[in-house]
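Example record

The entry below shows one chain as it appears in the dataset: sequence first, then structure tokens.
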Amino acid sequence: MKQKAAWEYLKFACGPEGQKIAVLGSGYIPTNRQAEKPEYLGDFYKKNPLWYTPVTQIQYASAWQGYKGANGVKIWHKQRDLIGLVMRGELTPQEGLARIVKETEALF
């Protein structure tokens, strides 16, 4: 019963209606090209062309690899925090880069 329910959910989430919900809630690109049809996101994209820009870039996308080992999430969080400090002007880009390198290497 649970396995069937999980399968039904996955089919919905990966289908065009589920992708419409995911896109409108996150801004990510749909993983199902059927979601670009007018009844799902097509009309929305026509009215909001900036939301469609990432979809036009999909040809440049590639697999994204995480960091090996148990500290992958810690590394991402540390890097995110340091980038935030640079964006807020609390660190120079050079300081931020040096700290990202040092603190990332320390977590390997």
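Notes for this example: The chain has a mean pLDDT of 94. Residues 31 and 63 are 13 Å apart (CA to CA).
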